[in-house]
Amino acid sequence: MSVREFRDEYFNALLNLIWRQWTRLGISGQIASDDSPYVVDPEALLLFSSSFCRYDQRLYDLVIDWLRVNGAFINVQRLKSLSCKVSQKDAASLGFIVATMSKLSSRKWKKLADDLLPVKRAEAVPMFIAPDQKPLDFCRQKDKIALQYGYLRMPYQPTNKVTVFPIGVSASILLQMRGVFGLSARAETILTLLNKDICKIQDVADISGFSWKSIQDTLMELTAGGLVATDAKTKRGRYYYLKSPDKIQHLFDVKHFFFPDWRRIFDSLGALWQAVANPRLIDLSEKTFHSEMARVFEEEIGEKLLDAGISELQFLNPEKVYSLPPLLEKL
Strand 125-126 and strand 151-152: pairing? Predict the structure, then answer.
């Protein structure tokens, strides 16, 4: 397989993965919305989509449509926290999405929209690009909000092609739990305990994106309320677990689900794409390509995929990178 062929296959597989996740949450699309055992992380997905969906304007605008319908279930504070932890992001693009939401929907987005405004106003560039990194600069009319974040695009036009997220499916379990437990750290904490049986505070903090202190306070409250128990009296090394996980799981009518660390997964997939998408890499030898892949794994991915919670990606390495597109199609 040539480098160009791999780039095209990887791009299509990664874009299809993003389409599938949003479709499972209520976006109308041509990608099959069959259920998956993996719970979607809406904030991690939104962060990655704000960058990668610049290759697909239709999906990009459908994401904003979805937020107009389901934005009440997005934790803006968690979104901000995760944005500080990821390396693969587009702050200006995320700023445009959040600012559009602030204008059309709720003031809860305004603070983050202001925080994401560029410090220096630079010449605006086309928001949407082709897989070969060439800009798609057709723009009869300019979106005023996009200009504030340094992008040129046609004005966003809402559609009616999204629905409220479905219930009774694994993909939306976190959103369903927020409907029951609210937008605090409780939903992520309980979901993590359902997924891992026993956890330390740091385990929950790592996958949830909340601070250690927030998780500690949440676990103390859940323990006091009788939902969670602990195995030790000392703070250090203490493990927590749910007293009756089956009863909680039965509330959501889903038999099997897994909550991967999508933040680390998207960061890893994004780092690989940034390397593969580099136009200078296309014409290089296969040996040079594998050297670049080895560098990306060593410097940017490391062990992120090892404990991220998706077995198909757990042992991915530079030698197996050509197998990545078909692996993504299974997720």
Answer: parallel
φ/ψ of 10, rounded to 5, equals -65, -40
C-alpha count within 13 angstroms, C-beta hemisphere, residue 194: 28
What own/partner pairs with CB < 8 Å and gap ≥ 24 does 160-163 have?
Answer: 160/65, 161/27, 161/28, 161/62, 161/65, 162/26, 162/27, 162/28, 162/62, 162/65, 162/66, 162/68, 162/69, 162/70, 163/26, 163/28, 163/69
Give the Cα separation of 218 and 309 in Å (integer): 23
Report yes or no on whether pTM surpasses 0.85.
Answer: yes
Q: Which residues contact 293 (CB under 8 A, 6 or more apart)?
A: 272, 275, 318, 321
User: pLDDT tens, 269-309?
Assistant: 999 999 999 888 877 788 888 899 999 999 999 999 998 99
Per residue, the 3-state secondary structure of 36-101, as one string, reads: CCECCCHHHHHHHHHHHHHHCHHHHHHHHHHHHHHHHHCCHHHHHHHHCCCCCCCHHHHHHHHHHH
Domain boundaries along the sequence of the chain: 1-165+257-331, 170-250
Whether 32 contacts 44, CB under 8 Å = no
Beta-bridge partner residues of 85:
none
Digit-coded pLDDT (tens) for 6-65: 999 999 999 999 999 999 999 987 665 567 899 999 999 999 999 999 999 999 999 999
Distance in angstroms (rounded) separating the CA atoms of residues 81 and 191: 19
Please tell me the CATH code under which domain 170-250 is placed: 1.10.10.10
